[in-house]
Amino acid sequence: MNEIVGQIQESYRAERIRVSYCVFDIGAYLKNLAEKGFIWILKEMKDLSDAEKILIDHYLIEYRANQIYDNLDDCLNMQTHKNNSAATSDKSTQSTTPTKEKQAKKQQHLEVRDVKQFIGYKKAKELETNIIELCKNFPSYEVDHIVNQIERSAGSIKERIEMGEQIYVGEKFNQYSIAIGSAKETSAWLQVSLGQKYITQVQFNELDNLTTQVVSILTKNLSNIKEKEGKGMDLPNPFTPNVKNFGAYTNALQLVDKIYEITDRREFRKEKDLVKIIRKRATSSVANLAEAHQLYIPKKFRFFNDSLKALDGLHSLLETSLIKGIIPEKELKEINELRISIRNVLSMKMKNISDEKAS
Hints:
The chain has 359 residues and is an all-alpha fold. The chain contains 14 helices and no strands.
């Protein structure tokens, strides 16, 4: 992997020199790299200008879901094979080793189906349709928050399933992993909505059951692929734990309920902007915690870290509320105890992930 990271960084340095450091040309190159899923690799370079850093951060955020952190050799081989296939000569054919031929074939034996006939796609589409219809009855002040987030995550499930219908085994796992994470995030937003009584228990059960069905279908598909077409490939375990059995997740939902209860009081009525961002920080901790329950360890680590950042941002905002005298110190202490308990679990999980990667 280190060799591939170095190769991509050196290719970028060469391109940078070729275009004479022209920001527009570099920007186009960086966008292309982000779309392919490799822009994160440049973040480690020490010789970046401020303009480059800004562009890299911009495209990393815009194409966050595209980034590929595992099986880089497979993905690079895919693109190299595609770019060079037209220019392959007899000489290069003779020099190709049997191992490389085997690897190339190994990545290209999935049958591409009509995704619209796939039961997982149909279920995901049904889920998105039902959620969009349901969100029409949400309070208007949640349109820029819960409504946007749950519609986005539900739409991502269907989109990623469609993008996963291709010949490359590794990329199918990547797209399905994102879809699974989005399904778990959607379930989290449904639980937040239930907690605020925006939806009924019956509505929650119906939609949450749909998300569970989608995850089960995708998991079963990946399990079959790993057992058959994916033999010999370094593919992740397709089975993900149930986030509802994760204590930190349950505590995070309790934290959200507490935050909504407090910010709904008369003292906060003149602090609409503060209320909005406090609620966003609290719900973001839940959403990221849920989305972390997908296949690839680096993505799991990243979402756990985003949940931690949301919790820390929430603490700062609550202290601001204390300074303004709109939240009692005793209540802030109770919230912090809950927040810290979540933080401690996430920190421990992240340490375990780091230790596993190091071993």
